[in-house]
Amino acid sequence: MKVRYQTPSAVFALMFSPDGTQILLQKRQNTGYQDGAYDLAATGHVEAGETLPQALCRELNEELGITVLPGQLEFATMIHKHDRDTDKVYFNGYFKVLSYDGIPQVMEPHKNAGLSWWPISQLPATLIGDRKLALEQYAKGIPYSELGW
């Protein structure tokens, strides 16, 4: 049987303030990827048997201690990313969190140096590039983008 190419997938949470002017970000540490940079509030890989929304709900609970059901997510955008440095290819799914139960807090302090709200109009210079692109594409209503090809 022919072995098929398999592309990993990752999910990302867009958590906006009630008035939509701010977004919740985390500062990465000790992960081996973009440590010291700002990232979206919750991110992670899709595991076997999970849909993208299921994976993000799991990540939101693991990383922020909040409960989110798939129906509380709204698809925002997808980026098909090719990392030329590692030659890895990902399908990155971004979802807006419409509502949740609980209070977001750092549940993995060994990987997350802290959470903070940032004005959409003044994002930190160290926000990871494809996350910034996702926010820009979402704001423009563009559902799919390619990066690094």
UniProtKB/TrEMBL annotation:
InterPro entries with a match to the protein in the record: NUDIX_hydrolase-like_dom_sf (IPR015797), NUDIX_hydrolase_CS (IPR020084), NUDIX_hydrolase_dom (IPR000086)
Alphabetized SUPFAM superfamilies for the sequence: Nudix (SSF55811)
Occurrences of domain Nudix hydrolase (ranges): 6-139
Alphabetic keyword roster: Hydrolase
Domain of life: Bacteria
PROSITE patterns for this protein: NUDIX, NUDIX_BOX
GO terms assigned for molecular function: hydrolase activity
Entry's family note: Belongs to the Nudix hydrolase family.
Entry protein name: NUDIX domain-containing protein
Organism: Periweissella fabalis
